[in-house]
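Possible regression after last week's pipeline update?

I re-ran a chain I had predicted before the update to compare outputs. Posting the input and the new output here so someone can diff against the archived version. Not blocking, just want to make sure nothing changed silently.
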Amino acid sequence: MIRARSLISALLTGALLSTVAACGSGGGDDPKNVSAKTAALGTLTPGVIKVAVEPYAPYTTVRAGKIVGLDGDILTAVAKKLGLRIKPQVTDFAGMLAGVQSRRVDITVGGVAWSAERQKQGLFTDPPYYSPPAMAVRDGKTYRTVDDLKGLNLGTVEGYVWVKSIQSVPGAKLHAYPDANGVFDDLGAGRVDVGFLDPLLIIAAQKQRPDLKISTEYLTPPTAAEVKAKPAYQYFQPYQTGFYLPKQAGKLEKAISAQIDAMYTDGEMAKLVRKYGGDPEQFLKPAADVATARRGVDRPANWTPPSISK
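New output (post-update):
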């Protein structure tokens, strides 16, 4: 999730003007042109998958009615195989979650972190990728552990999983913003010491806005003992993303998860991660707690998360 040029502002302007649906496969909005197999997926409109996204390149950006970016490319590949045409709806992160939970859309994509709380209100696919705990810091500053964050001004986006983690750091002050642009602006101005955002977003900001004088660091994940003492610290560990769907969309979720798993196996997922500057070794290999977090919650007891390792 990265923002190009002025990061978010330019993309948001273009995205909000985009109302034309993206072209995948399938026969369009006319149910008569949709195969029985595709119709059985149960999307709100047969043959069409309505997707809520925010401008968050290079994870999701809407250009000329088409979702581009890492998550956009993954969903496009999946939709093509399932015979679905993508129809994006641009909103903010809170709107993405609300659109799914109220079933106004079929799905939302773009670095949505799996959590036990969110899965109670919706369905998550298998992880299309995993995200290491990345920090945006000012050049010359070094923070390695949670202890290094004590007493600092820490920023993130409203509704992101890091909000709870930051609130649990002794003496730290949370700065929550509507979007990542606010985090970067205040970080560059010295009003925030550390910004917790998705890794590709920070890497892109370094390239697109050198005036900010920021760099990317990765937090050493807290130990099991630290997480036990402060459960919210779990979000300072690598997290699993997922495509998020309404509770009623069981058939669609299973079909998408199957395609995601296949993309790990055939190398397509690794290819897409590299396209956007990510390292497949970090993005496509789950941490040990990924399986245990979901087993018996929204996955069977024997569930194995997808991985590029055999």
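Follow-up from reviewer: compared with the archived run. The domain at 8-130+240-294 is CATH 3.40.190.10 (D-Maltodextrin-Binding Protein; domain 2). Marking as no regression found.
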